[in-house]
Amino acid sequence: MERARVRAIGVPFALVLLLALAARSVTSFEVPEALVGGAFGGSERETATIGGQDRESLESDAETFADELGQNPDDRQPSSVHRPGLTPPYRPPAAQHPDVETVDDGRQPPPFDTSSLFQHHFNSFFNTPLETGFFGTAGLPGFGFFDTNANRPWWKGENVCVEREEKEEDITSSDNDEVSVNGGTASGGSSFGFHGFSTFNLNVQSCAEKQHKYVCTSIKNVNGRKRTEKLTRQCCHGYGRPRNGPPNAHCQKLDLYSMEETVERLGAKEFVSTLKKSGLDATLENDVTLFVVPDSAYTTFAEQMWENNLVAFDPMARAKRAIDFASMTARDMILAHTVNGTYFIEDISNEQLLKTDLPGANIRINIYPRGPMAATVRDQSHAEHPYRYTANCAPLLKLNRVADRGIVHVVDRVLVPARNTLMDIIEVRDDMTLMRTFLEMTGLDKMLREQGDDKHYTIFAPNDDAFLKLDKDIRRKLKAGNGCAMNILKNHILDITFCSLAAVNGVKTSTYNMLNEKLEFEYAMVGKTRVPSSVEGELSEVEDEGKKTQRIRINGFATIEESDVVASNGVLHMIDSVLPTDSGMPISNTLGNHNLTVFKQLISDAGLEEEFDGMSNRTFFIPTDQAFEQTETGRYWIRQLKEHPESLRGNAALKEFLEYHVAEPLIKTCGLEETTIPTKAGQNVRVNLYTTNPVFTTVMNRATVNCARLVRFDEETCGSVVHEIDKVLDVPKTNLMEALSANPDYSMFQRMVSLTNLTELLTSPDSGLTLLVPKNDVFLEVDSWYQETLQNQDELERIIRAHVLPNVICCTGIVPSEWPFVRTTETISGHQLKLNRNRRPQVQNAGITKCDVVARNGIIHEINDVINVQPKRTSSTGAGSGNPFESFGSITRPLTFWFK
C-alpha cells in the first residue's frame, strides 16, 4: 500500500535537489550489512571501493593523468590507471610505506567487486573532479552512501598546500583583445550586451595534473590589463601520494627518513661515506637534490681513478680521461652531484641545466620515451614513469625519493663534470685530429664552442681511421672546407642532446640532423670488438666471432664505438665510419649514384669534372640517359662519346652545352616560379608551371625548364641541387622572327607576319610568347583564301594575332580537357582558344604536329590547320568571351605549387 502511494505521488527532480541540500547537515546513513552482503557483495563491507580500489580510480585518464609534457593522454604508455575487465584492479599492499619499492608476488588479485559501480558513475557525473562542477565547487550533496568526502579529488583533500603566483601587464596590441565574463568591457573598448546583463570578457583557464602537483593557470582580461594567475596545489612537506596507488589517492603521512638514512637505504653508503670524509655533512641538513651513485658503480669509479694515477697506465687512455677527471677530488665529485633546492623529476624540462655546487659544472637532464614492452615484462618503473630520464647522459635508476629535507635521485654511474665544450673535447683527443681540422676549416668549430641554456648539440665524430677510409678526392674537398665539407660534417651533428639511452633495443629510433636528414639508430651484434693486443695497454680491433657484442649502429652503416662523452654544450659519440650523404657528395658522385651516366661522361671527357665538382649554390638540370637517346642533339653527343671521345676535351660547343644545364642560384621545387634563370653559359632558361587538375586550375603540380619536364627533383649534392629532366636543353641561337625565317617550311606564315606590325613583337628579347605556326602545306590547300587575306590588312592582322599567345604554353602543359572543365588560353587579341589533348595536343581546331621549338624569347608549336576564331565580341570576359566555364579553363599565373 505504501509503495503504491509513492508511485502515485511521484517526486519532482527539483524536490530531490532540495532534499539533497538538506542532507548535507545530516549524517550519512549506514547501509545494512544484509544489503551489502546479499546479491551485491560478500560478507565484508566494501561499499567505498571497487575490488579494493578507490572509486576515483575510475576517473578518465584525461582528468586524472594530464601529462606534464603535453603528450596526448591516449598516446601514453599504460600506467597505474586500472580499467575493469582489462587489467587487474588495484589492491594496496598491507602496511606498505608509500616510498617503498613493490615487488609482484604473483598472487592472484581478488575478484572484481561491482557493489559500488553505480555509485561511482552517478557521483562522478554530479561531482566532477574539475575545479567547478555542474552544481558548483561542492558538487551534489551526499545522499549518505555517495560518500562525497572520499570522492573528492586529491588536490581538494587534506594535507594539501597551495601556492599562488600572479602577474599583471598592460595589453597594448589589438591582437590581444579578449572578452570578459565578469563585467567590464573588452580591451578594444567595445561592449557586448546580453539580455540586459552587463558586458562580459572571456577568461582562459587550463589545468594539468602531475603525480604530486595540480597546477591551474588562468588568464583574464580586466579593463585592458592582462592578469595571469597560477595556482599550484601539492602535498605539504611530510606528506605524499603513493606512487603505485589509485589515481585519486590522497596525500598521506610519510614516515620520512633523514637524508643520510634515505641515501643508505637506496644502496649508496659509499657516497655518504665520501660526503662525510669531505667535510660536507652540512649538505645533509639542507634542502638539496642529490644525484647519488650505487655502491657498485662508485667502486668502479674509484678503481678507475686509482688506475688513472698509475705511471704504467696507457698514456693515450690517460689523455682521454684527463679532460673528464683533471684535478677532480672526492669533494669535487660530491659537489658535482649536489643541487640546491628540491627538484622532482616531473618538474624538470628536457635539456634543462641544473646548477651544481661545483663551480662551472651543471647537470643536464634529458627525457626520452620508453620503447614498446610486452605486458608480461613491463616492470614497475615503466608503470610509474612513461619516460626515461638521464643526468649528463647517465640513466636515472630511482626517482623522487623524498627525505625529511630534500630529495634523492639514483644514477647508474658517477656524473662527469661537464665543464668543457664539445670542441674542447675534440681538441685533446689524439684520435680525432682530422675531425678537428675539418671543423676548423669549415668554421663549425665556433658553433661547437658556444655555451648557454639553449646550446645543446650531439656530434657523432668519426675517428681518424674513419676519415682515412674515404676517397682521396672527398678528403681533399673536406680539407678545402668547401660546401661539400660543410654538409658532410653537418650530417653528423644534431641540435639536440641524444644520449645512448635514447636508442631502444629491439626497435629503430630516429631523429633528424642539421641537414634535416633522417638518422636511424638500432642495436646490432657487431663481430669486431676492441680487446687488448699483445702490446701492453694498446687497444686494437680484431675479428672475434665468438665475442660479438651489441652496439648502436647509425643508418645501418656506422657503429658507435665510444658513447656519451658529455660536454657543457652537449654530448659526443665516436663512430667508426663517416656517414654518407648525397648532400655532401660532389656533382660527379651524385650523377653516378642516380645513373645519369651520359652527362657524367660528357663532363669527364670534356675535362670539366673538377670545375663542376667545385660549384656551389647552383641548380643542375640534368637530362636522363633516355632523354639523350630521344632527341637529335642528345644522339649527336652520344655518337661523339662512342666515336670521337678525344675530340671532346676542350670542345667549346660541348662546354657551352653542359654549362647551359647549370643555373644559378640554388632553387628547389618549393621555390620555383614562372621566370627566367641565368645559366653558367650566359643565356637564360625559362621555367614554367602548369596544372593537371581539372578543377583547381591555379594549383601548379608540373614544372618545365625550356619545355623539358622535371621528372625527378630536389636531389641534393654538395652545396647544390639536381633536377632530372626528360629532354636535353639546346642553347637557343635565334629569336622567334629569326626562327621563322630560318625554316623554309614556315615561309608563307613568315610573309603574313612581315605584312603586319607584329615583327617588332616577335623580335623583342623579353616577350615570352607562344607562336602557333601552320606549315606551308596548310596554306597551299587554301591558296585562294591565303591570297585574299594578304590583300586585306585588317583580316590579316586578326589571323596572325590569333596565332600568338602572350605566355609560354609548352606541350606538357596541355592536358585532356573535357566539358565542363574546359581549358582555354587567351591570344594577344583577347580571343579564347580551347586547349585539349587526345592523340596529340590541340589548340582550338588545330593539332600540334611539332612541339616546343625553343627560341630566345619564346617557343614555336607547328600546327596542321589555321586557327579559326570569330571576330572578337564586345567583352573578352564572362559570357561575352564565348566561354561559359572560364573559371575552370584559363591558364593563369600560379598561386600554389607542388609536385606529384
Automatic annotation (TrEMBL):
User: Region Disordered: what ranges?
Assistant: 43-114
Please tell me whether the keyword Secreted is annotated for this protein: no
Annotated Basic and acidic residues bias? 43-58, 98-107
Q: Which PROSITE patterns match?
A: EMI, FAS1
Which keywords does the record carry? Disulfide bond, Signal
Report the GO molecular function annotations.
Answer: cell adhesion molecule binding
For this protein, the record's SUPFAM superfamilies field holds: FAS1 domain
What GO biological process, any one, is recorded here? extracellular matrix organization
Q: Which residues form the signal peptide?
A: 1-28
Disulfide bond among the record's keywords? Answer: yes
Cellular component per GO, a single term: extracellular matrix
PANTHER family registered for this protein in UniProt: FI19380P1, PERIOSTIN-RELATED
Q: What is this protein called?
A: Fasciclin
Which organism's genome codes for this protein?
A: Anopheles arabiensis (Mosquito)
